[in-house]
Design a protein that fits this description.
Layout lengths: L5 E10 L4 E10 L2 E6 L9 E4 L4 E4 L1 E6 L1 E2 L2 E2 L5 H13 L2 E8 L4 H14 L11 E2 L1 E5 L26 H4 L9 E6 L6 H10 L3 E4 L6 H10 L1 E4 L15 H8 L4 E5 L7 H11 L4 E4 L11 E5 L2 E6 L2 E3 L12 H10 L4 H6 L3 H6 L17 E4 L5 E6 L2 E4 L12
Parallel strand pairs: 1-4, 1-5, 6-9, 9-10, 9-11, 11-12, 12-13, 13-14, 14-15, 15-16
Antiparallel strand pairs: 1-2, 2-3, 5-20, 7-8, 17-18, 18-19, 20-21, 21-22
Helix pairs in contact: 1-2, 4-5, 5-6
Bound molecules: zinc ion.
The site of zinc ion has 6 residues, from loops.
Length: 404
C-alpha cells in the first residue's frame, strides 16, 4: 500500500544521470519522487532519514535475466519468482524482465501461466523487485550464432501460427513490457518484426549474422536495440560490417553489454564506449539460475552448466550466461575507470529508455516512481525504496556473487 507520508532522504551523495550532487536530498510522497535538490533548507517531512556517507541512486533495471538464486525462469513456480525477486532487490535491482531462452510450446505456456499468477500480486511485497514484463530471447534466432541457446527450439516465421504461443501474454500489470531478441535474416524475420512492432513489442537484434542492409531494413520496421553486443554476432569484417558495424554506426540504436569480465575483454568495453559514448549503452546481467550460488555444477535448461571462478560453461564449452548481478556489472565499470554517474546510468536510465519506460523509471527526478537505493562505498544496498516503501537491508547484507 502506498502511503501519502512525506519521506526525506538527506545528507547523501546523489547519483544523478550526469553528475554527483552532494550533499543533496530527495523528497518522496505517494510513491513518487517529488523533489531532488541540494538546497540548504530541508523541506518538512513525516520521516527523515539521514543518509550521510551513502550514495543515493535510482533502482537498477535488468532487462535480460534468466534466473538467480537457484531459480530458473523456465521451471519456476510463482513462489520461485518471489524468491528471485527478493534476491534481486537485495542487490539493488528494483525492476526486471525475466528472460526466456528458446523453449518448446509447453515450456512457454508454463512460464506464461506462472507470470500470470505471480505478477498481479507482486506489489504486495516491497522487499521484492518488480517484474516489468517479459523478454523472449529467441526463438527466431540464427542457428549459426546459437551461443548457449539450444538450436532444437529455434523457429522460423512463415505465419502467425509459428509464434502464436508468444503473442497472448497479456498479463494484467501496468506497464507490462514485451521484448524480443531475434535474428532478422532468419526466414520471415523482417515480416515478424513488423508484426511484433504493431503489437507493441520492443525489438532487438541478437544471435544473428545479419548483413548491414538487413539491419537497416530491420530498423525501418521497428528494431531499436542490439542484445549482448557483440556476443553471438558475426565479428566485424572490413567489407561485411554486419550487425556489429551497423550498431556502432547507427545513432538511433541502443546496445547492451554483459560486463561480467568474461563475456567481453574490458578493452572491448573501452572501445565501444570510445566509439559511441555511454548514452546508448545499457548493462545487463544475462544471469542464469546459478547466480548467487557460487562455483559448482548446475543442471539448467536440461544440461549441465559448470561455474568456475565465476565463469559459466556448458558441455560444448560455450559461455552460458553469467552469474553476476547488475551491481557487479556497475562495479566492474568503476574498476575499468568509468565514473559512477555514467556507470549507474547504464544500469538505470539507459535500460529504462530501451524498454520505453523512462518517463517513470531510471533516474532521481521529480515525477518518477520512487525506486531509490541507498548504497555504501562498495555499492551494497543499505536501504532500498521500491515505489517509496522503505526496505531496510542492513541486517541482511547481499550475498557475494560474481567475481571480477
Ligand atoms: Zn541470455
Amino acid at each position: 500500500m502506498r502511503t501519502s507520508r512525506r519521506i526525506l532522504l538527506y545528507g547523501g551523495r546523489l547519483v544523478l544521470p550526469d553528475r554527483l550532487l552532494e550533499p543533496g536530498w530527495v523528497l518522496i510522497q505517494g510513491g513518487i519522487i517529488q523533489e531532488v535538490s541540494a538546497a540548504e533548507k530541508l523541506p518538512s517531512a513525516d520521516e527523515r532519514l539521514d543518509v550521510s556517507g551513502y550514495y543515493v541512486a535510482p533502482g537498477m533495471l535488468d532487462l535480460h535475466i534468466h534466473g538467480s538464486a537457484g531459480v530458473d525462469l523456465l521451471t519456476a513456480t510463482a513462489e520461485d519468482l518471489h524468491r528471485w525477486a527478493r534476491f534481486l532487490l537485495r542487490h539493488g535491482v528494483t525492476r526486471f524482465l525475466p528472460t526466456t531462452v528458446p523453449a518448446d510450446p509447453t515450456q512457454y505456456a508454463h512460464v506464461r501461466a506462472t507470470l500470470a499468477e505471480y505478477v498481479p500480486e507482486q506489489e504486495r511485497d516491497p522487499r521484492a523487485a518488480s517484474i516489468l514484463g517479459v523478454h523472449f530471447e529467441g526463438p527466431i534466432v540464427s542457428p549459426r550464432r546459437p551461443g548457449a541457446l539450444n538450436p532444437r527450439d529455434f523457429r522460423t516465421f512463415r505465419s502467425l501460427r509459428d509464434v502464436e504461443d508468444l503473442l497472448t501474454w497479456d498479463i494484467p500489470a501496468r506497464p507490462f513490457v514485451r521484448m524480443m531478441t531475434l535474428a532478422p535474416e532468419v526466414e520471415g524475420g523482417l515480416a515478424l518484426i513488423e508484426e511484433l512492432r504493431r503489437r507493441g513489442f520492443r525489438l532487438a537484434i541478437g544471435h544473428s549474422e545479419a548483413s548491414f542492409e538487413i539491419c537497416e531494413a530491420a530498423a525501418e520496421r521497428g528494431v531499436t536495440h542490439v542484445t549482448h553486443f557483440p556476443n553471438a554476432l558475426a565479428p566485424l569484417h572490413h567489407r561485411q560490417l554486419g550487425v556489429v558495424g551497423w550498431a556502432l554506426l547507427e545513432e538511433r540504436v541502443t546496445l547492451d553489454l554483459i560486463a561480467d569480465g568474461h563475456h567481453l575483454d574490458r578493452r572491448m568495453v573501452a572501445l565501444v564506449k570510445k566509439v559511441m559514448g555511454t548514452d546508448r549503452l545499457a548493462l545487463i546481467s544475462d544471469a542464469i539460475a546459478a547466480a548467487g550460488l557460487g562455483d559448482g555444477q548446475y543442471e539448467i535448461w536440461g544440461e549441465m552448466i559448470r561455474v568456475v571462478n565465476g565463469r559459466t560453461e556448458n558441455a560444448a564449452g560455450a559461455l552460458a550466461g553469467s552469474v553476476i548481478t547488475l551491481r557487479d556489472a556497475v562495479r566492474h565499470l568503476l574498476q575499468w575507470g568509468v565514473p559512477l554517474p555514467e556507470a549507474m546510468r547504464m544500469a538505470t536510465l539507459v535500460p529504462a529508455r530501451v524498454l520505453g519506460v523512462a518517463e517513470a523509471f531510471g533516474a532521481l527526478e521529480p515525477g518518477k516512481r520512487a525506486d531509490v537505493l541507498v548504497l555504501d562505498e562498495q555499492l551494497r544496498p543499505h536501504l532500498v525504496l521500491r515505489d517509496g516503501e522503505i526496505v531496510r537491508l542492513s541486517e541482511e547484507p547481499p550475498s557475494p556473487v560474481g567475481t571480477p
